[in-house]
């Protein structure tokens, strides 16, 4: 089993995407943050042998994020020992990562990151690949994964660069991209 961790911020106006907020305002940047988060997570539905962990920031935001996000992803959830499950999803909000063979961290603002993409990236991890990294087009990484048995960090596989949404221009580019319709639908959903 693999663990895919997404740091997620409570999407309050003025509390997320600060550079974008300077351009479009805090309320609109929070709405866009929620839309990108929904689009990214919806892309990961059906990810096999992988649990998604939402690492909430600030620490006391778990309940607010859970009540906002889970109903938007699916109508019904089963909860077992802090793990929320439904058809195509397994999500938790914290805990140990020791039980997982591979631990990955991804950028929630990378809507191009889909289930097939993650599955392909992690495919060889148990069989000898020790580290996978996906660079973001704007700098930094949108994806990193390390096998617990990793002995040599030099054994790294590099994924193609993908865009992340940080600025108003990134948002416009994402709307013009392959996931533009899904992103716009999520943005409209967040207006309600």
Task: Explain the overall architecture.
The protein is an alpha/beta fold. It has a single domain (about 1-190), classed as Spore Coat Polysaccharide Biosynthesis Protein SpsA, Chain A. About 35% of the residues lie in helices and about 25% in strands. It is built from 6 helices and 9 strands. The protein has helices at about 20-25, 25-45, 60-75, 115-120, 170-175, 180-190, and strands at about 1-10, 50-55, 80, 85, 90, 100-105, 130-135, 140-145, 155-160. The protein has a 9-stranded mixed sheet with strand order 3-4-5-2-1-6-8-7-9, with no helix packed on it. Helix 2 (about 25-45) crosses helix 6. The longest helix has 18 residues, at about 25-45. The protein is globular. The protein starts with a strand and ends with a helix. The model has no long low-confidence stretch (mean pLDDT about 90).
Secondary structure blueprint with pairings:
Layout (H helix, E strand, L loop, with lengths): L1 E8 L8 H7 L1 H18 L6 E8 L4 H12 L4 E3 L2 E4 L2 E4 L9 E5 L8 H8 L8 E5 L5 E7 L8 E3 L9 H9 L3 H10 L3
Parallel strand pairs: 1-2, 1-6, 2-5, 7-9
Antiparallel strand pairs: 3-4, 4-5, 6-8, 7-8
Helix pairs in contact: 1-2, 2-6
Keyword list:
Spore Coat Polysaccharide Biosynthesis Protein SpsA, Chain A, 33% helix, 192 residues, nine-stranded mixed beta sheet
């Amino acid at each position: 089993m693999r663990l895919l961790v997404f740091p997620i911020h409570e999407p309050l106006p003025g509390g997320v995407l600060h550079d974008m907020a300077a351009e479009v305002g805090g309320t609109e940047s929070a709405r866009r943050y929620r839309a990108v988060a929904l689009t990214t997570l919806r892309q990961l539905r059906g990810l096999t042998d992988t649990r998604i962990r939402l690492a909430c920031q600030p620490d006391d935001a778990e309940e607010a994020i859970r009540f906002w996000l889970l109903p938007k992803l699916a109508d019904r959830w089963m909860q077992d020992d802090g793990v929320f499950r439904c058809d195509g999803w397994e999500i938790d909000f914290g805990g140990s990562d020791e039980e997982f063979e591979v631990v990955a961290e991804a950028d929630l603002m990378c809507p191009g990151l889909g289930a097939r993409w993650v599955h392909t990236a992690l495919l060889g991890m148990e069989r000898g690949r020790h580290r996978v990294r996906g660079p973001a087009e704007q700098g930094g990484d949108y994806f990193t994964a390390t096998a617990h048995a990793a002995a040599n960090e030099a054994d790294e596989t590099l994924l193609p660069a993908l865009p992340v949404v940080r600025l108003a221009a990134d948002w416009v580019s994402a709307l013009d991209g392959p996931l533009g319709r899904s992103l716009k639908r999520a943005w409209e959903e967040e207006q309600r």
